[in-house]
Design a protein that fits this description.
Helices cover 41% and strands 21% of the residues. By secondary structure, the chain is of the alpha/beta class. The N terminus is likely disordered.
């Protein structure tokens, strides 16, 4: 007998329970469009933890098990394909130009949806890279919604970060007498004005970090969609915008991260006023801490959750 699946509008809900584990997928109405989320946990009474992916545009749903499997024992781990990203984009594209404020509005609406759905006054928030920027916006504007915020390799003032990492890469190129690298880095303008700037900057910064850079075709495709939003976000200087955060905040930073320049993050942490703050160094690691250092990444979050009776 064939199974019958009922699709109401675009809403699709899958609930899977095995040995107590919960796995939900659904499209929820956020910001006037349907946006895709997954929820994984060992217990539906666990506190909610929402992960804000990077990019912008970089869905992590295809590999999130690599850096959330342990977290799922302690949290209801929520992944979200943001507006115009992957499964949300397949459901429906944004009906309005994408701005940093629109993305923040979406995040806050999703947080309130999760609070209501799971009867929790506050949730935990984790943001990586671009998601780190988005999370800082939320933590600054809506601290009352958060038990704590974990900023992972966050964009603090990305225009300044790009200048610092460009100077660092140029110095490395001169030291090694890499003429091709020197010539290509000289073409780069910050703030970026086109995909070439992004490509040559990231090509050599990532190479100097001993990682594999993205292809030129990928960077061109990404830039056509996401560069305007990135440039808008890169102008935001959290030293000025958010000198104080009124919820517990934790920074997870690689001491080899030249993509979101680690020294800039350290400087911001030092000056930041917060009811509780801490900086966790990932020695020898670069930008992609959730996957490159997944064990420590999860342990830091678990160790800093609020234990309630």
């Amino acid at each position: 007998m064939k199974k019958t699946f009922i699709l109401v509008g675009i809403l699709f809900l899958l609930v899977f329970k095995s040995f107590g584990w919960i796995y939900l997928q659904e499209a929820v109405s956020i910001g006037g469009i349907n946006q895709w989320i997954t929820i994984k946990s060992a217990n539906d009474k666990n506190p909610v933890l929402l992960f804000l992916h990077g990019g912008p545009g970089n869905s992590v749903m295809g590999y999130d098990e690599k850096f959330t499997k342990i977290l799922q024992k302690y949290f209801l781990v929520v992944q979200w394909d943001q507006r115009d990203v992957e499964r949300t984009a397949k459901l429906n594209l944004s009906d309005t130009p994408i701005t940093a404020q629109l993305m923040e509005n979406d995040a806050v609406e999703l947080i309130n949806y999760l609070r209501k759905r799971f009867s929790q006054n506050k949730i935990y928030l984790v943001g990586h890279s671009w998601g780190g920027f988005l999370g800082l916006k939320v933590a600054n504007d809506h601290p009352e919604l958060l038990e704590a915020y974990f900023a992972v390799s966050p964009m603090i003032w990305q225009d300044e970060s790009e200048k610092l990492s460009l100077a660092w890469a140029k110095a490395r190129a001169r030291k090694s007498n890499n003429k091709t690298e020197m010539e290509e880095l000289e073409r780069v303008d910050v703030p970026f004005k086109n995909s070439d700037d992004v490509y040559y900057h990231r090509k050599w910064v990532v190479t100097e970090m001993r990682s594999k850079p993205a292809s030129r075709s990928f960077v061109e495709s990404w830039s056509s969609k996401w560069l305007p939003l990135t440039l808008e976000a890169s102008k935001v200087n959290f030293f000025e915008v958010a000198p104080e955060i009124k919820c517990p905040i934790y920074f997870l930073v690689g001491d080899k991260d030249y993509q979101t320049y680690f020294k800039l993050t350290e400087q911001y942490f030092t000056m930041l006023k917060a009811e509780k703050k801490e900086l966790f160094w990932f020695t020898g690691y670069g930008h992609n801490l959730p996957t490159a250092a997944s064990g420590k990444f999860q342990r830091v979050i678990i160790a800093n959750r609020t234990l309630k009776n």
